[in-house]
């Protein structure tokens, strides 16, 4: 017991020494200074625009989004779906228009600035075009805020099958990720990513518009599965593109760490999309295969039944009549 008491005493002294070594106030000041430094480094062109003074508002909206998703996912299981067909149609049309503006504006701005190469130099040689590109990327960041409503609409309409890990991860992280891109790196390289993603969302929301008109239009959206493939292709192209920037050391405001973050973020999306695609479409293929087998089995049984009836009818016809 004395040995145990002595060891406990030594352990207590060791803990006290560790606590004295850790200066919590100093660490708190370091974190505050780091936060202030990043806030002061925000692009001057965008710093006074809505939501751009700090990431706090964007982070709070994303956190509130997650809370709303958890609440509605539980709450709507006890209630009937809310009819929002017209609201959702207007929302999808609005998102098509907004993403088309971003897509076309990026192309026009890059053309006017003669920024054709993979190593974008729009941030160095053309202040007017750089300012325009900042505006466009800010609008693209705003689209990511509007995209959060899509999840809310799904839940209010009790479309729980649309809510999965890929959907939640994508929507909850894209909004703050694009705040960072807009605040610090709104240049030609980031614009290339926005260009691809806006084109994808034009196609995606067009699919939602067509599908909202009912079963009679289902034959026109046979290409639904290719949207998921396009999503995966988009992130694969982004990985290759930013790997190219990393390899060639292009002169752009993106730091090497930021490029690696983008690559890792894209890899996570590729893994989630691939998992979703295999689970969803292989399940449909298996279901169709099982359905085909059941139909074939039914046809065989039906043919056997018809053959047996034909045999009985013919036998009756050949039976001799008794006087």
The figure for the number of domains is 2
Alpha-carbon distance between the two ends: 117 Å
Structure class: mainly alpha
C-alpha Rg, in Å?
A: 30 Å
Number of helices: 10
Order of helices and strands: HHHHHHHHHH
Average predicted local confidence, pLDDT: 78
Q: How would a textbook summarize the main sheet?
A: none
Strand count: 0
Q: How would you describe this structure to a colleague?
A:
This protein is mostly helical and 323 residues long. It folds into two domains: 1-40, no CATH class; 41-296, no CATH class. Helices cover 78% and strands 0% of the residues. The protein is built from ten helices and no strands. The chain has helices at residues 2-21, 24-40, 56-75, 85-112, 122-125, 127-156, 165-184, 188-211, 224-248, 256-318. Helix 3 packs parallel to helix 6. The longest helix is centred in the last third of the chain and has 63 residues, at 256-318. It is globular, with a radius of gyration of 30 Å. The model is unreliable at 18-37 (pLDDT under 50). It is found in: Membrane. It comes from Brachionus rotundiformis. Its EC number is 2.3.1.199. InterPro entries: ELO_fam. Keywords: Fatty acid biosynthesis, Fatty acid metabolism, Lipid biosynthesis, Lipid metabolism, Membrane, Transferase, Transmembrane, Transmembrane helix.
